[in-house]
Design brief:
Blueprint lengths: L7 E5 L17 E4 H7 L6 E12 L2 E15 L9 E5 H7 L14 H6 L1 H7 L9 H4 L1 H39 L1 H9 L4 H37 L20 H27 L3 H6 L1
Parallel strand pairs: 1-5, 2-4
Antiparallel strand pairs: 2-5, 3-4
Helix pairs in contact: 6-8, 6-9, 8-9
């Protein structure tokens, strides 16, 4: 309809690349996002002029490279930039964009098998060939996820620290309420080590129950959220329609170690405060 829109064109031959989900077979004309086709008012069979930004040099000067294609296919896109991507036959792509280096997509049985193919491909292809794995293509995403994991661990550690301070406050409250009773025990022959051990056992009991109950509830909740997909996401904005959960033993052990360490420090500090009580001061208090 006389409008000009910029797109990223990809000419391919063979199975459709992963960037065009839902489209099968080789393109005979122009392939674009079904949603964007609706926005542009295009239907199958409509004619579209594809103009390359690389002109052809002729005796009359630079002339634009123009190919008129029919809309022959659609793909189901979920990415925000789907409207900026179109596919066309490889031969037409080469004529519109001469000099572009071809790319070959190699798929393995799984992620690990794909990485195992790299040495064989490097030996079989020319030396100037650049091989990029799924790790290389998604390196910014992996870096963002790793950074998010670090900050999430710091956040959880701070929450555990607050819980450890609450445990310390509880033990201090017990010590304040039982101050005279502790003084009586000291006058009857109880040693400071005995009282220290008793408060250590009390702190270990409270911390152990809290850690066990919290870890159990967290594991169960994570499994249920992943199984029933309780946390939904708008599919037209994100790549996935729900928040997935994955339990890793390493993450669980790290959190448990930090929790036990903070709880032990709080318990030891409170127990030593109890052991430092003087019998007369405790009875007077």
């Amino acid at each position: 309809a006389g409008r000009v829109v910029p797109v990223s064109a990809l000419g391919f031959d063979g199975p459709a690349p992963p960037a065009f989900p839902g489209f099968e077979g080789n393109p005979e004309g122009l392939v674009l996002s079904a949603r964007q086709a609706t926005v542009w008012g295009l239907r199958p069979g409509d004619r579209v002029d594809v103009v390359s930004p690389r002109p052809t040099l002729t005796p009359l000067g630079p002339q634009p490279r123009v190919r008129t294609l029919s809309v022959t296919g659609f793909f189901e896109g979920t990415r925000p930039d789907d409207g900026e991507r179109v596919a066309l036959p490889l031969a037409l792509g080469r004529s519109l964009f001469p000099g572009e280096r071809p790319r070959m997509i190699v798929e393995g049985a799984d992620f690990d098998a794909t990485l195992a193919l790299v040495p064989a491909l490097a030996a079989a292809l020319p030396a100037e060939t650049r091989i990029e794995t799924w790790k290389d293509l998604n390196r910014p995403l992996f870096f963002a996820l790793a950074l998010e994991r670090v900050f999430l661990f710091v956040g959880v550690a701070l929450i555990v620290l607050v819980a450890a301070l609450a445990l310390l406050a509880d033990l201090a409250l017990v010590m304040a309420n039982k101050r005279r009773d502790l003084g009586v025990l000291l006058t009857l022959g109880a040693t400071p080590k005995t009282l220290e051990r008793a408060f250590q056992n009390l702190g270990a009991l409270l911390a152990g129950l809290g850690t066990a109950v919290g870890a159990s509830l967290g594991i169960i909740l994570a499994l249920l959220c992943d199984r029933f997909r309780w946390i939904r996401l708008p599919g037209h904005v994100f790549f996935v329609d729900h928040v997935p959960f994955r339990l890793r033993a390493v993450d669980l052990v790290e959190i448990l170690v930090v929790t036990v360490a903070f709880a032990a420090l709080a318990t030891i500090y409170a127990a030593r405060r109890v052991a430092s009580l003087e019998p007369l001061e405790a009875l007077a208090g």
